[in-house]
Amino acid sequence: MSRPGPRRVVTVGRVAWAGALLLVGSCASAPAQATGALKPGSLAARWPIKTSVPAGADLAHPQDLPLAKLVGLQDAPGVKKEDSRYTKTRIPGPMDGLREGEIVRTRGWVHLIALEPDGDYHIQVSSDSTSGDHCLIVELPLDKPVFEPDPKLRALEGPLRLMLRTKLLHDPTKEPGTLGNWIPRAYMSITGQLFFDDWHVGDPPRGKSPNGHHMKAATLWEIHPITDIRFSPNRPVSAPAIARRPASRARTAHHG
How far is Cα 116 from Cα 26, in angstroms, rounded to an integer? Predict the structure, then answer.
């Protein structure tokens, strides 16, 4: 079956080429071809750090943190955009009592999932059931050796990606759209490595904004890679029984 020709799309401040089918969520098993800093192994994107966890990391006993603490984290002191000192090394300095590489767990409302050109599932999480603004970005690498070199992490990531397609997109064969799929209501627990994305230092707030909603990340800190994500029964008491959402539930989103 032939595919439409490539088109230019903008995703989280990056420019990539993607097939038109990806815009609405295709059945493709791999992302659009990545180039430059999005290419697997890119040091500019800190690939060796964002697709790994520290040796001996205890994934079964993460540090529980409220989402408010994570979205309140400021930029890592003294770290520059695409800082060559940290392409293969974790940032050593503390930030509000935390360090890059720590395994943390938080809970929040998932508002969007997208397939990035670098293979990641990009997920935006906020503490508000009705607004995705002031969010935390968490990312789940593609479980293929060229994207994720660690076989133990690949063994976790594959089933997690399948679960997200099945539970959030309601189709295990359907990839999220490159511009993002709007998620009506999902309160989830997310575990993984605390990671600082210096690729975006100095840039305007990033984030994908489906249906024109203002959804911007509050921090350059992420959970990346995700090592566990699941629905959480511990929904805040104040959360409404049914989250208010716009009537239209488009599958794609305009980058904000």
Answer: 13
> How many domains are contained in the chain?
1
Confidence of residue 236 (pLDDT cuts 50, 70, 90): confident
- Residue 154: inside a domain: yes
pLDDT in tens, 172-210: 999 999 999 999 889 999 999 999 999 999 999 999 987
Tokens of 123: 């997920």
Q: Write down the pTM of the prediction.
A: 0.81
* Tally of helices (H runs) and strands (E runs) in the chain: 4, 11
Instruction: Give domain status of residue 138, yes or no.
Output: yes
Range of 132's domain?
Answer: 24-239+248-255
Residue 86 covered by a domain: yes
Q: Is 233 helix (H, G, I), strand (E, B) or coil?
A: coil
Tell me, yes or no, whether 13 lies in a domain: no
Cα-Cα-Cα-Cα dihedral sign, residues 227, 231, 232, 235: positive
DSSP secondary structure string for all residues of 6-57 = EEEEEETTEEEEEEHHHHT--S-SSPSPP-GGGSTT-TTTTHHHHT---TT-
- Cis peptide leading into 236, omega within 30 of 0? no
